[in-house]
Amino acid sequence: QPHIRKIPTNQPVLPLEVFSSRLGKKPEEIIKLDANESPYGPPPEVFEALQDLKHPNIYPDPECRQLRTALAKDSGLGANHIIVGSGADELIEMIFRCVLVPGDRILDCPPTFPVYAHQAAVSGALLVKVPRKKSDYSLDVQLIEKMVDKERPKCVFLASPNNPEGSIVNDEVLLKILDMHVLVILDEAYIEFSGMESRMKWVEKYENLIVLRTFSKFAGLAGLRVGYGAFPLSIIEHFWKVKLTYNVSITAQAAACAALQNPAYLEKVKVALVQERERLFTLLKGVPFLKPSPSYANHFLCEVAPEMDAEKLKDDLESMGVFLFCLEFDFGSAFATRPSEWTAS
Ligand code: PMP
């Protein structure tokens, strides 16, 4: 197509309906673990709020005032630090639109959430890759510092807990990276499962920190698309300028507000998911050809021994109605790549 520039593909997971018709099973019979969604769904207040929706003929509040006020109350951070988006994904995309011009660099620490690298490719930003340490997926802070000095990336993306394996960034490491004077994007999509406090409040102190959160995981609202970012006041005004005017539907805003009204339900679901994570982790540790990684998230990564075919294992589980995400990555040195291993999460 002569009018379209070259765009890298991304690989979203398939919808539940496709899985269920493929297997001839009801959606409720499918065990869908490939996108780290909540199997429990949102609190009942969400369904009530959706039934009570009025005025679909009127545009939604472009500033999500009610939701931002509720988030501010819960987090102790002023609503003026918060922007809501259509999932944390939209905020990632906004960061690229607001901060980077083609040719700028971002620093990425794979294996991690692939949307950072994909958005970099879409926006023409160059990727400075600093792979995580093979032993425990922790960040290689020394190498990050070296690459920041050498390549001068504009921002560093860090997921804590990380996707795919669920390791966290501790305070000491975060402070070291904040000290490198790059913009740090701390993606806390899974923070609720970590037992740690969110670093949202840190944006009051650190002018180079953006914290991302989402209702997709802990609140069971992945299908309604609500995420948000906490920004330092010195940069948030620029983000308001790039945000699409009516980016969060009335449905999504109402659902997120309703979810926050039932913290007891959200806590119960979180505890159940963490317990289940630990139970499954212990079980899988006993399987000789699997090596699950300890996780602070609602999911974990399971390395598959080289003599096993991870893709086939995934297909076999699929035929039983269990859907996983299979990924391949390498632990080369920064920039270099090595023959890769298959792993299933
Ligand atoms: N960050 C991470 C680390 C994720 O794993 C995900 C979802 N898979 C997101 C952000 C995006 O979440 P959302 O559904 O809010 O767009």
From TrEMBL:
GO BP term, example: L-histidine biosynthetic process
InterPro entries: Aminotransferase_I/II_large (IPR004839), HisP_aminotrans (IPR005861), PyrdxlP-dep_Trfase (IPR015424), PyrdxlP-dep_Trfase_major (IPR015421), PyrdxlP-dep_Trfase_small (IPR015422)
Keywords, ordered alphabetically: Amino-acid biosynthesis, Aminotransferase, Histidine biosynthesis, Pyridoxal phosphate, Transferase
EC number: 2.6.1.9
Aminotransferase class I/classII large domain sequence ranges: 29-304
Reactions performed catalytically: L-histidinol phosphate + 2-oxoglutarate = 3-(imidazol-4-yl)-2-oxopropyl phosphate + L-glutamate
Pathway: Amino-acid biosynthesis; L-histidine biosynthesis; L-histidine from 5-phospho-alpha-D-ribose 1-diphosphate: step 7/9
Cofactor: pyridoxal 5'-phosphate
Top-level taxon: Eukaryota
CDD domains: AAT_like (cd00609)
A GO term, aspect molecular function: pyridoxal phosphate binding
Entries under PANTHER family matching the protein: HISTIDINOL-PHOSPHATE AMINOTRANSFERASE, HISTIDINOL-PHOSPHATE AMINOTRANSFERASE-RELATED
Protein name: histidinol-phosphate transaminase
Organism of this sequence: Escallonia herrerae
